[in-house]
Amino acid sequence: MFEQFLDAAVALFTLGNLLAMLVGTVAGIIIGALPGLTVTVGIAILIPLTFGIEPLIALGLIAGIFNGSSYGNAIPAILLNIPGTPAAIATTFDGYPMAQSGRTALALRVACYSSALGGAVSALCLMLLAPPLALITLAFGPAEYFWVAVLGLASIAILIGDDPLKGLISACLGLFISTIGMDRVTGQMRYTFGYWELVDGLSVVVVLTGLFAVSRVLLMAEEAKTTGIRASDLSVVGSRVDWPTFLSLLPTWLRSSIIGIVVGILPGVGGNVAALLSYNSAKQAAQDKETFGKGNPKGVAAAECGNSADNGSSLIPTLTLGVPGNAIAALILGALLVHGLQPGPALFRDNPDIVYGFMIQMFLTAIVLLALGGLVATRIFAQVLRLPGILLVPMIVGLTVIGIYTTTYKLFELYIALGFGLLGYFMASFRFPLAPLVLGLILGGMAEMNLRMALRISRGDWTFLFQNRISQILIVLIVITFAVPAIRNIRSHFARPRGSAAGQ
Amino acid sequence: MTLRTAEPIIAVILCVLCVFAWIHTGSMSSGAQIFPRMILAALGVLSVIYLVRSVMADSSINEISLDKKKFVFILLITTSYVSSFIFVGYFTATFFYIPAVCYALGFRRLLYIFIADITFLLSVYILFVYSFGRAVPRELLFQIFG
Question: Sign of the C-alpha dihedral, residues A183, A189, A191, A194?
Fold first, then answer.
C-alpha cells in the first residue's frame, strides 16, 4: 500500500496536476464564498468540462473545489452573517460577532486553519481506511452488493431530509430513471419510446448537471439580487492568530476532526451536522461557555474543522463500495464514471495511480488552503461578493451548455439536461431532496445487475438473497435505517407533553 | 400556491406515472421487467401514502413562493438559447444571451454586463477552444462573411 501511495505521489507532481489543484482550490473558495452557489453546483458544472482531460487532473480540480469551498463558505458567514450553505450556519454563531468586534482577520484566519486541518486529517483517514476496506469488499457477491445498494439508497433517502417519505419517492424516481434504455441482459428496450438517443440510458453526467446546475439557475433567477455587497462591508481588519490562541485551539481541532470524520462516514449525514455537533461539543468542553455565541474563536474553529473533516471520510464508502454517502460524493462518483473508472476493489487494483493519487490530492488541496487563506488572498476572494448574483445565472447556463455539448455533441442531451433542470427546480420548490434521485440513478444499475446475477446463480430462488451472513447484517442495517424516523417520531411524541408541561 | 394544494396533485401525477409505466412493462420479457416492477410497486405504495397524507394534512402548511414571471421568462429564453446556439454558433448566441437574461431580470448596467460578457466568452474560448481543442458549432457570422 505504501509503495502505491509513493508511486501515485510521484505521478502527481507534474505541472498540470499541481496547477489543477491550485486552480480547483481557488475556484472552490470563490464558489463557497458566493451565496447561492454550492459545491454541488460547482462540481456539477465542472464534470462535463473535464471530459477528455486526464482523470488525475480532473480529480485534482474536484478535490480543490471540494476542500476550497469548505473555507469559502466561511467568508460570507463571518463577514456578513450569511451562511452560503447549511454547513456554514455554525460558523456564523461566533464568526460574525468576532467580525462585529473588529476581529475579522482573526476569525478568517481561524476558519482557514480549521478548514485546512479538518480537511487534511480527513484525507489522512481516507488514505488509511479506504484501501483495507476495499479488500474486505472482495468477499462480497452479487447478493451482498444488491443489499449494499439498497442500504446506501435507503439511508440517503431516509436520513438526508426532513421528510423520509419524500426522500424515498425521490430515490424510487432515480431507480426508475435508471431502467430507461436497453436492458443489458436481454437487449430489450425499456421506456425509450423509439428515441435511439435513449438506447444507452440517460447519461449520469447530463442528469447530474441538469438537476444541480440548471435547477439552481432557475432558482437563482428568482432569488438573485441585482446589486452586489458594498466594498465597505467587506473590510478585513484585526489581528493574526498568535501562538497562545493557536495552542488553545488544538483540543478543539482534535475533537472536531474526529466528529467530522465519523459523521462523514455515516451516509446521509452532511457537513452541517458535523459542524453543529462539533460546535456543541466545543461549547460543552469549554470553561468559558458563556462567551460562545459572542465571538469565541473556538466556536469558529469547531464549526469549520467539523464541516471540513467530513470531506475525505465521506468518500470512503464511495471509493470502496461505489455507494456515495451524500450528493457531493455522488457527483464525485459520477466524475469517476465519466472517466471510465468504476469504484470498488477493482479501482484499487486496476488504477492505483488514480485512486491513491486522488486521496493524496484531497490531502494536498487541504494544505493549499493554508497558503490561499492568507489575509491578502481572503481580501481578494471577498471581493467576489460584490458581483451581482444575476450575472452568474446566464454564465452558469453558458458553461453547462458548452460542457455538455462538447462532451456528447448531441443537442438531445442538452434538452435532457434542461428537462432535469426543470424537474430539479420543481422538486426543490416542493421540498423533495435531489440527492436520493441521483443516488437512485447511479445505484440502480448496480442493484439490478446484482439482483439478476444473484437470481441467475440461485436459478430463480429469491431466498438466496437472504442466506449469506453479510447479507443478513446488511438487511438488519436496512431495517434499522427504516426504523430511525419511527424512533424519531416516538421520541418527539413523548417529548412534547413533557416540554409543554414544563413550559406551563 | 401552497404545499397543501400542490401535494395531492403531485401524488396523483406519481400514481398515474406508476400505472402507465407498469402497463408498459407488459411488453418486456420476464427478466427485463423484474426490476422496473419492483420499483414501480414501491413507488406506487409510497405515492398512495403521500396522497393520503397530503389530503389529511394540516391546512397551516407554508406557502411556496414561485415567481412565475421570472421563471417562465428564464425558461423560454434558455430553451431558445439551447435550440439556437448550434445554428448561430456558441459565442454569438452566448453574446446575446447574457445581456438578455441580465436585462430582463432587472440588472441594467450595460457597461458592466458588456465587460462580464466579453470576459466570460474570452475565458471559455481560451479554456475550451484554445487549451482543450474542443470543437464548438461554427459561428453563423463566419459562415456568412468568411
Answer: positive
- Do the beta carbons of residue A353 and residue A59 sit within 8 Å? no
Could you read off the pLDDT of A311-337 as tens digits, one per residue? 888 888 888 888 887 888 888 888 888
Q: Which residues of B touch A49 (CB under 8 A)?
A: 127
Instruction: Select the highest-mean-pLDDT range: A31-40, A332-341, A378-387.
Output: A332-341
Q: Which of B43, B102, B136 sits opposite A176 (nearest CB)?
A: B43
Per-residue model confidence (pLDDT) at position A268 = 65
Judging contacts by C-beta atoms under 8 Å, the chain B residues touching residue A188 are: 28-29, 32
Pick from A265, A262, A266: nearest CA to A159: A266
CB contact under 8 A, B21 and A191: yes
Q: Which of A418, A155, A430, A209 is nearest to B65 (CA)?
A: A430
- What is the value of pTM for the model shown? 0.82
Cβ-based contacts under 8 A for chains A and B: 151
Query: CA-CA distances (angstroms) from residue B40 to A34, A36, A335?
Result: 40, 35, 29
Nearest-CA distance from A236 to chain B in Å?
A: 26
Cell of A243: 501562538
pLDDT digits (tens, 9 = 90+) for A103-153: 888 888 899 999 999 999 999 999 998 888 888 877 888 898 899 889 888
**Yes or no, beta carbons of B21 and A176 under 8 Å apart:** yes
Is the pLDDT at A503 greater than 50, yes or no? no
Phi and psi torsions of A189, nearest 5°: -80, 140
Q: What phi-psi label fits residue A227: left (phi over 0), alpha (psi between -120 and 50 degrees) or beta?
A: beta
Helix (H, G, I), strand (E, B) or coil at A144: helix
Residue A11 is placed in which grid cell?
A: 505521478
Interface of B with A in 115-134 (CB under 8 A): 116, 120, 124, 127-128, 132, 134
Query: Is residue A222 less than 8 Å (CB to CB) from chain B?
Result: yes
**Nine cell digits for residue A23:** 486552480
> Can you tell me the ipTM of this complex?
0.91
Question: B56 to chain A, minimum CA–CA distance in Å?
Answer: 15
Q: Is the pLDDT of residue A504 over 50?
A: no
From the list B73, B107, B127, which residue is nearest A390 (CB)? B107
Closest partner residue to A188 (CB to CB) among B14, B28, B85 is: B28
Whole-number Cα distances in Å, A169 to A261, A326, A331: 29, 17, 20
Q: Which residues of B touch A411 (CB under 8 A)?
A: 82-83, 86
Residue in this structure with the C-alpha cell 397524507, named with its chain if needed: B53
Among the partner residues B31, B47, B82, nearest to A414 by beta-carbon distance: B82
CA B144 to CA B96: how far, in whole Å?
A: 18
3-state DSSP call for residue A424? helix
A367 three-state secondary structure = helix
